[in-house]
Specification:
Elements lengths: L3 H34 L4 H6 L7 E8 L5 E7 L7
Length: about 80
């Protein structure tokens, strides 16, 4: 059975680890945002997973609550991806 001190140490270790992970995630988001704001070409943004090039609208529907659903697909003339 865990003592109160060991339980407190476990909670503190968990909190410390979560803070480290959040800091890493924030750094990655800042890097991603700076790529979007820079003058990168569409191909580089696509390679980094920040954009999808060559999409066309296939269909538009109105769903529940008046939400608009746009169905997209890759352009067939660009070749298979």
């Amino acid at each position: 059975m865990l003592t109160q001190e060991s339980a407190l140490a476990n909670v503190q270790a968990f909190i410390t680890r979560q803070r480290q992970l959040l800091a890493k995630e924030r750094e990655a988001e800042i890097e991603r945002s700076s790529l979007l704001l820079s003058n990168c070409g569409p191909k580089l943004l696509e390679q980094k997973g920040l954009s999808l090039g060559g999409l066309t609208i296939v269909n538009v529907n109105i769903g529940l609550g008046g939400k608009t659903y746009v169905h997209r697909s890759f352009c067939s003339y660009l070749g298979a991806r």
